[in-house]
Amino acid sequence: xxxxxxxxxxxxxxxxxVDGEPxxxxxxxxxxxxxxxxxxAGFAVSGKTGHRLAPYCLIGACFGCLCEIxxxxxxxxxxxxxxxxxxxxxxNPEPPHDR
Length: 99
Hints:
Structural class: mainly beta
CATH superfamily: 2Fe-2S iron-sulphur cluster binding domain, sarcosine oxidase, alpha subunit, N-terminal domain
Distance between the termini: 7 Å
CATH topology: Ubiquitin-like (UB roll)
Number of helices: 1
CATH architecture: Roll
Number of domains: 1
Strand order of the largest sheet: 2-1-7-5-6
Low-confidence stretches: none
CATH class: Alpha Beta
Number of strands: 7
Mean pLDDT: 85
Largest sheet: 5 strands, mixed
Helix content: under 10%
């Protein structure tokens, strides 16, 4: 996976559920950042190529991070702040193998 990591000073103080698995997060960081820091960069699969899709811009312009968050479909994970207890569903048909 990528070399993205949280700084040592970041206080992991929240847990979210992503595709049925608990993921440690920092309250207030974006959901996309929490997933990337947890090694889950693939958020969807291209219907055309079958390749994993990942967030591209992280500023809300590309829609590469669309997820279902707390039952709301098509939410841009890069713009949604983490709240402990959130339930996130990516558009991956199977669990990531690259962790």
